[in-house]
Amino acid sequence: MFGVLGILAVSAIISFREIQILRKQNMKRDLWAFCFFMLLATGMMAAEVLALPIPNPMEGLAAIFSPISGWFMME
User: Fold this and answer.
1) Where are the domains of the chain?
2) Model pLDDT for residues 4-44, shown as the tens digit of each residue
3) Which end of the chain, N or C, is less packed with Cβ atoms under 10 Å?
């Protein structure tokens, strides 16, 4: 539990500083991208600390592209 609180504290400090800079420079798209990726990274790190199962992205890609690969095989 303290690991998750530590991750949230570090994430909040980084976000606070970075959001101030992006707002000052009026970079709205960059602000949205930063917030999205920071939330994604914070969630994944919290899941890692809590030992929750995190799916492998390659398995998802293999499931999507395995039917398509049959079309390109020379048989």
Assistant:
1) 2-72
2) 999 999 999 999 999 999 999 999 999 999 999 999 999 99
3) C
Q: Which residues contact 42 (CB under 8 A, 6 or more apart)?
A: 7, 8, 11
Residue 62 pLDDT level (bands cut at 50, 70, 90) = confident
Q: Taking the model in full, what pTM does it have?
A: 0.74
Residue 75's pLDDT is: 56
Task: Give the E-state strand segments of the chain in sequence order.
Answer: none
Give exposure, 36-53, as e/b (b: 16+ Cβ within 10 Å): eebeeebeebbeeeeeee
